[in-house]
Amino acid sequence: MSRAAVLTGLGAWAPPTVVTNEELASCLDTDDEWIRTRTGIRQRRVIAPGEATSDLAVEAGRRALKSAGTTTADALVLATSTPDRLCPATAPQVASRLNLGTVPAFDVAAVCSGFVYALAVGAGLIATATADSVLVIGADTFSTVLSPSDRATRAVFGDGAGAVVLRAGSPEQDGALLDLGLGSDGSRSDLIEIPGGGSRQRSTGLPTDLEGTYLTMRGQAVFAQAVHRMSESVRETGARTGWPLETVDRFVLHQANARILTATAKRLGQPVERFVTNIDQLGNTVAASIPLALADGVASGELLPGHRVVLCGFGGGLTWGSVALVWPQLNTP
Ligand code: UT7
């Protein structure tokens, strides 16, 4: 019997500070109606001064381990594009704070597809018997990389973290990751970027460098790519799994914009009611968005054991990826 990675625990954490559309409108040229109708977002969460991505990752990781009924994991994979520092990776610190000992721990940077990429890495560690269990976390704090004057990105992004525990099992078990399809298109890397701070555009130490440390996004072009890539990716994963899309109970897509979810559902010819969403409460939480949507889907009863589920991420890079699984019975953390 072949060895599969099986999802056995789920945890999520969003920082308590809420920023409503009205609060954004009090300091930016925007309003609640524009944000709600163009994005579906009503509010987002942001970290407090002094907090960092690792703090959210630890909270979500702790909850996922508890949900899996364990305190250990053989490896930790952290999907993030807002690490605490550029160097070293954030994952080892998270592993230490979770008392996981000296297990392998590293970051995966695939922006909003990060969680699906990290699932694929975790599944690979299990398939090769490098690990019997892997803690996979998606955590981002994009509030720390947004220009205070950019109304488009500040309306969209929020902070959060979500995590799952993968354990070696069989493909027949509920929770087994059945198909993982990933892709990228680096020729469109300029559509979402933070130009400064890396080896291409180093800091000269001048105050004008600050602009380069902010996220830039060409919203309309990204929107079109998101719909195109996610619908293709979901279609391919459905076909490889042998699941006609009509038989998929829930689609859990990256929560980038409610209109992207509606347009993708339409492109796939599937009712939008089967697309789990929590974007109104949390906005776009980047690598955390899929596990946060899973946690909210479970809490609301939208996502039930036995459901056929397809997860799909899309984001900067450009990158995208999907995974199919039958939703397992989990303990609530
Ligand atoms: O996470 C994965 C990657 N991210 C995404 O998938 C995000 C994809 N893109 C989007 O969600 C949307 O493109 C945005 C929400 C970012 C922007 O919405 P849009 O409907 O595409 O607006 P737009 O960029 O075409 O801009 C239309 C107008 C512009 O004004 P002018 O040039 O027509 O005068 C913008 O400046 O809307 C303006 N605008 C705003 N107005 C009020 C942009 N943001 C705001 C705002 N409030 N917050």
Automatic annotation (TrEMBL):
Its EC number is 2.3.1.180. Residues 106-186 form the Beta-ketoacyl-[acyl-carrier-protein] synthase III N-terminal domain. Pathway: Lipid metabolism; fatty acid biosynthesis. Residues 240-327 form the Beta-ketoacyl-[acyl-carrier-protein] synthase III C-terminal domain. Keywords: Acyltransferase, Cytoplasm, Fatty acid biosynthesis, Fatty acid metabolism, Lipid biosynthesis, Lipid metabolism, Multifunctional enzyme, Transferase. The keyword Acyltransferase applies. Residues 255-259 are annotated as: ACP-binding. The active site is at C112, H254, N284. It is found in: Cytoplasm. It catalyses: malonyl-[ACP] + acetyl-CoA + H(+) = 3-oxobutanoyl-[ACP] + CO2 + CoA. InterPro entries: ACP_syn_III_C, ACP_syn_III_N, FabH, Thiolase-like. Transmembrane segments: none annotated. GO terms for molecular function: beta-ketoacyl-acyl-carrier-protein synthase III activity. Catalyzes the condensation reaction of fatty acid synthesis by the addition to an acyl acceptor of two carbons from malonyl-ACP. Catalyzes the first condensation reaction which initiates fatty acid synthesis and may therefore play a role in governing the total rate of fatty acid production. Possesses both acetoacetyl-ACP synthase and acetyl transacylase activities. Its substrate specificity determines the biosynthesis of branched-chain and/or straight-chain of fatty acids. The last Arg residue of the ACP-binding site is essential for the weak association between ACP/AcpP and FabH. Belongs to the thiolase-like superfamily. FabH family. Homodimer. This is Beta-ketoacyl-[acyl-carrier-protein] synthase III.
